[in-house]
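Bench log, entry 3. Co-assembly request; chain sequences pasted below exactly as received.
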Amino acid sequence: MILQAEGVRKLYGEFCALDGVSLAIAPGEFVSIIGPNGAGKSTLINVLTGVLRPSAGTVRFKERDIRGIGPVALARLGMARSFQLVPIFPDLTVLETLQAAVVSRLGRGTRLFASLRGDREVQEGALEVAELFGLGGKQHALAKELPQGDKKLLDVASAFALRPEIILLDEPTSGVSTADKTVIMEILVSASRRIGIRAILQVEHDMDIVFGYSDRIIALHQGRVLADAPPAEIRADARVVDMVIGRRHLPRAGSPPPPSSPPAGERAG
Amino acid sequence: MTGRVVLALAGAAALAFPLVAPTYHTLLMLPFMAYGVVLLGLNLLFGYTGLVSFGHALFIGVGAYAGAFLTGRLGVRHLEAIVLVAGVLGALVAMPVGALCVRYVKIYFGMLTLAFGMVFYTFLLKFYRLTGGDEGMPVLRPFLLGQDLGGMPKTDYLAGPYYYYSLAVLVAAACCMWRIVHSPFGLCLKTIRDNPVKAETLGVSVTRYRWYAFVISAAYAAAGGALLGPPTGNVDPTLAYWTHSGNIVFMTLLGGFGSFFGPLLGAFVFIYLQDFVMSLVPYWRLVFGAILAAMVIFAPGGLMGLFARRRPVEVARG
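Structure output for the full assembly:
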C-alpha cells in the first residue's frame, strides 16, 4: 500500500466531518472518491495531504506517519495535489510555473546566484511537462491570461512536474466544458504513465469521468465510507446509486469509456 | 533591446554627470545612489516576495551607525570594510527580527516591522552615551580603496572619488541583485508573492524563503545606509525613524515595484523632486502626499508602469 488511512475522524467542534474513514491505495491504482456535498471529501483530501490533522486515526504514506506534516514536507516525500479552485501564479508564465516545480523537486531553490535560464535540467524538465500537457505553444503566456481549461491543466501539470509517486486531484475537471473534461483526463492518464506516477486519487463529481477511468470507487456519505469497490460493483449497489450518485447521473452499464482524444500537443487550444 | 540602450545611456550619463553637472546636483546624486542600494534590497521583499516593510529604516540606521562607530570609535576608515561590515550587521540584526516578522503577512507584517523600527529608533535616541542621542554621531571621512583623501576639500572629495565609489557600489549591488532575482531562488520568491498556498504545495517552504529575502534585503539596506553617512558627515536617529521607512516605500511605489529598475528611478525622481519642491515651498510633504495619492490611484505600476511596453500580443495568445 502506498497510501493508507485507518479509522480517520475529523471533528470541527461538535460537527463530525469524517467518522472513521479507512482506505488504502495500492501502486498502479486510479481511485475516485465520490459523495454528495458535505460528505467530507475535501476534509478527507486535506487530511490525506497533511494539511489537516485528524482528530483520531492514522494516515500513512509509504509507511510513514504523515498526520499534519504540511504540504512542503509532503511534496518532498513524493505526494502532490491539485486544487478544486484553481490556484495559479497569476504573474508567472506557464514555463515559469513549471520551472518552479522542477526547481523545488531538484532542491535547487536556495541557489542564489545560479542562472535559472542557464539551468538546462530545469529548463528541459519544465518544457517536457509543458509539452506533455499540450501547453508547449503557450509557454510564455502569463497564467492569468490562460482560458479556464488551461489554468486547470497548468495546475495539474505543476503537480506532475514534481514527479510525485502519488497525486491527489481535487475535482480536476470541475468548471470546464464537457469536451475539455475528457481532454484533461486523457492528458492526465497518459502523462502519469510517462512520468511514472504510481497512483492517482481524485475527487470527482462527473460520473462519466469517474466510471470511465477509475479502477476503484470510494463512496463517502456523511463522513463515512458507504462503499469501496470497482465501478461494476458500485453500479450494482442500489444504496450507493440512490444516496450518492442519483439514478439519472449513472452512466449506462457497459457504456464504453470516453473516446480517446488526440495526443497531447495536437490538441486544439 | 530598448531596455539595454536605456540602461547603457543611463550608465554613461551617471559616469559623465560630475564632469558636466553643477556640483550641487552631483552631490544630490550621492543620496540617490545610497538609496538605490537600499531599494534594490527593499524591492526583493516588496516587488519579488510580496511583503511591504515599513521598518526598513531600522537597517539603514544599522548601516549608517556602523559607519559612525567604525570610523569614529574603532578607527576603521576603509569604506570597503565599512560597507561590508554594515551589510553583515544588517543581516545579523535581520535574522531574529525577520524570524518573527515573516510569520505574518500584509498589514501585520508591515506593522511588526514598523514596531521594530520604532524600538531601534528609541534605542538610538535614548542611549545617549553610546549613540549620541538626538545629536547623533560624526562619521569621519572614509578612505577609498585604501587612499586617505583627507587633504582634499570636502566638496571635491564627495563630487569626485566618493561619487564614483558610490556608483561602483550601486552597480555591483545591482548586478548581484539581478542575479538573485533571475536565479531559481528568485523564482521561488515570485511563486510566494503570487500564491503562497500553491507555492507550499510545490514544496517551497514559504516562511523560510521569506526569511531569506528579509535578511538579504536588510543587508542591502544597511550597506546603502553606510553610504548615507559620509556625505553629511553625521548620522542621527531620524535615519531610523518611521517616516524614513515611509519615504523608501514611497520611492519604490513612485518608480514601480513591478520592475527591477523601477525603485532606482523612483529614488532618483524622489530626490530631485524633493529638492525642487523644497526650493519653491516650505511644505514639501503636502505636495508629496498629493503625488503619492495620485500615483496609487492613477498609476499603481509607478513611473515604470507608465513607460513599460505591454507584453507582445502573440505571446499572450500562444
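The CA atoms of residues 99 and 161 of chain B lie 39 Å apart. The beta strands of chain B are 137-138, 234-235.
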